[in-house]
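Hi support team,

I've been running sequence recovery on a batch of backbones for a student project. Most finish fine, but this one hangs at about 90% for roughly twenty minutes before it completes. I'm not sure whether the input is malformed or the queue is just slow. I've pasted the structure tokens below so you can try to reproduce it. Let me know if you need the job ID as well.

Thanks,
M.K.
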């Protein structure tokens, strides 16, 4: 009886291998040859799932962004709007080794997306969705009856996104997590100053 292969699972495994290689050695480390070797596939088998390195890169980028969206999408332990906002803020900052590693992958993929319009479009869509979701959370948490597109809300959403992206980049220079207390303090300041 022939062995049944779960092709979606194989794709996820290949993306996980690509992500691991990028974490360990940067974008250049994730060559087709190194991915095949690390995944334990024959050379031709990889092409069945991903015809090119760009297709693996796109899938890896989508995977990391999906993980980030998933972390933000959960309301956390409380339906309280302020706690939901805190949860989202913490989900986007490099507050543990997993998120520091994910930042390394994102940085490599951001650089690659500059020359790849498909990836750039994917990330712009992610930024747009993130800003919208964050503005909704902020408006609810501020409790002033503001709409999500009120200037004070959209300005704060933009600032938080910029700080989060900057924190993810900076965390790569401190992979031991030395900046985690600073990022936690930032979340506390945002929460304290919501009513301003």
């Amino acid at each position: 009886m022939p062995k049944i292969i779960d092709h979606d699972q194989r794709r996820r495994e290949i993306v996980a291998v690509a992500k691991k290689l990028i974490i360990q050695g940067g974008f250049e480390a994730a060559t087709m040859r190194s991915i095949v070797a690390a995944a334990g596939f024959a050379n031709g088998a990889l092409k069945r799932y991903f015809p090119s390195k760009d297709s693996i890169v796109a899938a890896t980028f989508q995977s990391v962004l999906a993980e980030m969206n998933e972390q933000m999408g959960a309301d956390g332990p409380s339906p309280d709007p302020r706690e939901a906002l805190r949860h989202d803020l913490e989900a986007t900052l490099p507050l543990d080794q997993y998120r520091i590693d994910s930042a390394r992958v994102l940085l490599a993929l951001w650089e690659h997306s500059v020359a790849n319009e498909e990836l750039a479009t994917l990330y712009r869509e992610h930024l747009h969705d993130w800003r919208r979701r964050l503005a909704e959370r902020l408006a609810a948490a501020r409790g002033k009856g503001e709409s999500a597109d009120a200037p004070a809300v959209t300005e704060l959403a933009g600032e938080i996104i910029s700080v989060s992206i900057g924190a993810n980049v900076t965390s790569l220079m401190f992979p031991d997590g030395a900046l985690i207390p600073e990022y936690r303090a930032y979340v506390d300041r945002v929460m304290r100053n919501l009513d301003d």
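--
Follow-up from support: It reproduced on our side and the slowdown came from queue contention, not your input. Residues 117-142 form the longest helix (26 residues). No action needed from you.
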